[in-house]
Design brief:
globular; 228 residues; binds 2'-deoxycytidine-5'-monophosphate; alpha/beta; 52% helix; three-stranded antiparallel sheet
Length: 228
Amino acid sequence: MIVAIDGPSGAGKSTVAKAVAKELGFSCLDTGAMYRAVAWLALQKGVALDDDAALGELARGCELAFGHTPGDPAPKEVFVDGNDVTTAIRTAEIDKAVSPVSAAPSVREAMTAQQQRIGAAGDYVVEGRDIGTVVFPDAAVKVFLTASNEERAHRRVRQNVDRGVGSIDYAEVLADLVRRDEADSTRAAAPLRAADDAVQLDSTGRYIEDIIAEICGLAQGARDAGAR
Ligand code: DC
């Protein structure tokens, strides 16, 4: 069974996806980390960020892998071609580079195919931007998670402090969120938007535990209705 969680940066998708996966006994797939890993590789190899053909070749040819701790549904590490990029993909530099990379149609094609292969192998909570619309249009549960720009920026700053990587300047983080929302929503290939049948949840001012419980309830309801 697939639980799709889409929404803009900083809406709380990662925290919610991990907790929902743990509660349901599902695995967790962070598709943003996959686009970030390709962006990292493009910068490493000096591939131009507007060269769709070269980026596509990179995305198709690279080996993406997640490191797991037994018993934890959320991957602990991200590897690309054997390099541990867990921290390196969270820098402000990658925040910027990932927009053009994730807008490249050939990159999206390669990542979508890989995400569908991974998801077909079991029960997954998949977080991203186009999971309910493109990657898993038949997902049993589709959630579109949002929050106000200000709340998302505050959360992202706290997350960067905890991770010890990325900008901790509120104004810079807010400007970057707004810029990326705009880029993600207006690109031609698989833009950020809620699927018509997605449940829209606004986490502004709500306890994250409530959101987690609500999504677990939706998954339980889908299962009771026979979803697999
Ligand atoms: O969720 P995130 O901030 O780690 O995502 C990084 C970037 O990847 C973000 O700018 C949008 C893009 N992305 C995407 O285009 N499609 C996805 N399914 C997931 C992320």
